[in-house]
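User: Here's a protein and a ligand (zinc ion). What would the complex look like?
Assistant: Let me lay out the input and then the predicted complex.
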Amino acid sequence: MGEKVIIAAAVVGAEVTRAQSPHVPYTPEEIARAAVDAGRAGAAVVHLHARWPDGRPSQEAAHFREIIDRIRDAGSRVVVQCSTGGAVGMSVEERLGSLVDGAEMGTLNLGTMNFGDDVFLNARPDVVRVAAKLRERGLVPECEVYDAGMLDTLRWLLERGHLAAPYHVQLVLGVPGGMAASERNLRFLVEGLPERTHWSVAGIGRAQLPMAELALALGGHVRVGLEDNLFVAKGILARGSDELVALAVGLAARARRDPATPDEARALLGICGAKALPSSVSPA
Ligand code: KMH
Ligand code: ZN
């Protein structure tokens, strides 16, 4: 097989609700199960948010701890990435609650933008603060890029030493208010990345699988899952993020790309040695 592809599963997010799909996980137990299932289906990384039992977004450390403990108790070695984006309207302080022991990566949102009818606030001093927190905790940042100017912020962070390798870039395309999920936009962003940057695409809504297919062809990595898209096909809800991961695995096979295992993803992402897994999780 060909070059490895890291498939990430965004299993819950902060926006999608049970009113939209009964398959959206809410409790730590449900979110952990979704993560473990996604790992079994071929995801190497899980992008985690948390919820209160009624579905409201949560950045409570206790929720993230319970989710991670449950993932590891189930024997999964999947790479754990915690969201520092949380939900619109949360303070940065609140958003940082997710960076608990056991996290291996954390997201770093690179700028303020319209997010649907809301505003997702990421003032530059706050971006610097989150970057510093990730470094302090020894976590590999995943830089979330929604628009072209955020690549300039990425370069600014690198030049000023606020960010250094290893880091990963997630190109999130199709958020209303951000860059549309088009081939032209993806190619433009990829060309603008700093050299040797590894990148992934998260297409929103029905763009998820087409963007994944394009990323596979262009040598990038992919993110799928219910956070970004609830459907496996027009009008057919995904029963879980694992179904979307399975579709991404199929696309990878067609593109002659080989899904990375969690440990291969750790090596590619520079996580090796960053965080030890509990001894209860036996080597793959
Ligand atoms: N929920 C969005 C406002 C992240 O996880 O870092 C932000 C988000 C990005 O989901
Ligand atoms: Zn997220």
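Summary: The pocket of zinc ion (ligand 2) is lined by residues 10, 13, 47, 49, 83, 85, 227 (CB under 6 Å).
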